[in-house]
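Annex B. Sample input.
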Amino acid sequence: MRRLLWAGYGVLATLVGIGLAHLAAALTDPAASPVLAVGSTVIDLTPTPVKEWAIRTFGSADKAILVGSVLAGVLVLAAVAGLLARRRFAVGAGLLVALVGIAAVAVLARPAADPLDLLPSVVAALAAPAALRLLGRTHACAATSDDGRRTVLLTVTALAAMAAAGGLAGRLVTRLRTRPEDVTLPTPGDPAPPLPRGLDDQVPGITRFRTPNADFYRVDTRLDVPVISADDWTLTIDGDVDRKVTLGFDDLLAMPMVERDITLTCVSNSVGGPYVGGARWLGVRLTDVLDLAGIGSTKADQILSTDFAGMTISTPLALATDGRDALVAVGMNGEPLPREHGFPVRLVIPGLYGFISATKWLRRLTLTTYDERQAYWTERGWATNAPIKISARIDTPKALADLDAGDVVVGGVAWAQERGGIAGVQVRVDGGPWVDAQLGPDGGDDYWRQWFHRWSAEPGSHRIAVRAVAGNGEPQTAARAEPFPDGASGLHELLVRVS
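Annex B, continued. Sample output.
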């Protein structure tokens, strides 16, 4: 029981340090929280196949599971520190400080690290050993005093309350700091045409034609939501350009604004996966921004875009400037960008997977070559040229659904950016002939399209498959490929039971 008690002391002391450090990070930079800093380092060091497995297995919960795993590992070591402190306090406290030291190294390893980012780690390094010392002294007094047990209980309760208060206050401060900023967006000089009414109300279970901001997928390497003010934001265009240019947020808003309906897709999206969404984007043409710096004589073959924390993404210059509606975006579905989707400014380039086109929290555009500079994903073996592959997804019915015999509506979405959009979708049941599905309204070549097919279902188990055909006549390939290194391919198929 004594060993278990001291292990608990180590865990409680560590939780005090984590809670107070989380509050300090919320007041400075949320990413500097020790647990998040270690988690971010784990993400960077994790092999690509493991990352893809985690996304495929856990979906949008992968980050929460990662943070939970890091915290669990820390608490196991904290219990060991408590056991060591039972014999020699200095050894146990030293282990706690060593754990914080690992977090401090992770904080400093970030590309845009600032000395102030060490504050949460310093708070944890002071608070955790101090809490462990207090628990140890209170425990010693309990052996010589009749009121000792009550004192121990009060001390444990007070420290637990302190840990909880620090964590909850940190969450509250972070939530307050990440509220939407009051920004008035200009009216676009080149507006998008009205988006047709989709099949949302006609086909139950089908994906909404326009994805609400709150439902739009989020896949990035951040474990926090960055806190960036539009007043402090700048964008620098440099590298192999005629002149270096720096823009403020108001400078960008003063440029001609364009509005476009564009579907984005993550390269980690598996066949039939959820990491795709359609939205109306507002921004300045990327070519207009680049022209300010002059790129007519550049030898560059890539745009190396950098976010506020130093994360880099590379985009083939030829594709970004070939006439497609590539945007330096400031708005999403009629509102300023949500913070989790890149506020105040991000890139949106249709037809390219996000890992080479959709830099969030944008701060710099550097014209360079692939030989001179490599971006984050390039260093990890991902492709440098990754156009989004033609794809169709079945939204309804769901896989392994139990259906009643008779008329069944099969429906979903399909996309084929920069290929003339979707010209056709076909459905096949049990390996039979392909049958044309009915298409929903057309939102443009760079936007997805809803579809549905009425199927006369008979009792038994059935396999349903779907494929799309692009406007340029190119069919969706049936060849199976994993997301790494340039996007998944293959036909979406699922099994249902009819009774």
